[in-house]
Amino acid sequence: MAAARVSRRPAVRWLIFACLFGFAFFAYVQRTSVAVAADRMMPELGLSQIEIGWLLTAFMASYTIFQMPAGAFGQRWGARKTLLLASVLALIGTFATAAVPSLFTGTILFVMLLAARAVLGVAQAAVFPVASGAIETWFPRAGWSFPQGLMASALNLGAAATPPSIAWLMQAVNWRFALIVSSVPLLALTIYWARRAHDQPDQDSTVSPEELAELHSNPAPVGSEKLFRRSLTLLRDRDLSLITLSYLFMNYSFYLLTFWCFLYLVQERHLTGMESGWLAAIPYIAAGIGAAFGGRMTDALCKRFGGHRGFGLVPLIGLPVAAIALDLVVEAPSAFGAVVALCVAFAAVEITEAAFWAAAMRIGQSESMVATGILNTGGNIGGVIGTPVVAALSAHGGWHGAFLTGSACSIAAAALWLLVNPARRALDQVKES
What we know:
Elements: H1 12-45, H2 49-65, H3 67-77, H4 79-99, H5 106-124, H6 127-138, H7 145-172, H8 175-196, H9 209-213, H10 224-235, H11 238-267, H12 273-331, H13 335-350, H14 353-364, H15 368-395, H16 399-416, H17 424-432
Helix pairs in contact: 1-2, 1-5, 1-6, 1-7, 1-8, 1-11, 2-5, 2-15, 3-4, 3-15, 4-5, 4-6, 4-8, 6-15, 7-8, 7-12, 7-14, 11-12, 11-13, 11-14, 11-15, 11-16, 12-13, 12-14, 12-16, 14-15
């Protein structure tokens, strides 16, 4: 008699991850859209390029300041409630950016735009640290890098979709309509997340025993009464501090490529808005592919060489390649050559994302939301520093200097990985026990 066929349901963790992917995708649609809309906002609202730079900086400042608090909040209240609240605030911030020009003018308008962008930054501060905690909970410990790589793919695909879609919507109607329409799908995702998500796999009746068994080696959840003390311990951790400093340098290059590709192609390569919108999307697609590949590669290298060497190999290769490509952007004789160099640079930067985030999770263990919040705080300080610097350089025709500083920062980020051992904290705890 033939053996009964065993049906295996798809892992529920991938449904949860699809929602996390969506939050990351729309986070970058929302944050990048203003950089694309700036071409219309400046003449319509009487804003200078320096003021646009400050709008981007207002987002970056609040986004950076609230990284660790958002991670701690998520650690205390869980991913479901935290991401629900974050999404609602993000929608408010985006809709306010579109609405305030109808209500205010002059200095008050600029202040209100700054406030709206700051609200968006506070909201989105939770997205990636809290998603890391969900990945820690729902995915086996040995496979954290791949979903982290896919999260980076999501943000890059969101950024890739933004230039052509916002440029088309601006041309069809106006920039305010573009901001509103591009955020509507996030509302549907938020409602679905509120109805479907669970903080722990064993709370979900659709999770199979086999899927639960795959998670047996994951860190146990940390009690809220110990959270503050353990957060302070993470702030003093040597390896997390080194990774965070490296991520700071890497993010100068990341935000240079994320926020400024569109204007670079318009101002320096003299392309039209629609041409720049489509061409500026290509480096993001390359970055998304690189991020997913980097996640798979990092998991494989950690399995082959262990956490000490495995996490560092990808950054030690990818970041120097990015440094060379950033220099080639401004040396390229044609717009096509510049786009190719931008693709290589962005893919080489993003191939390292999974290593940064999964290594921080490995160090943080059951406090991965806080650990990745610390990581992203340092990383986004690179954006806070770099955004006004690039704005000032580009406003005076200094695109060459902007890309050269990105090249130098990529080299510095790679060098710091020579000092990192993400497995050190776990080894120290074993010795103490």
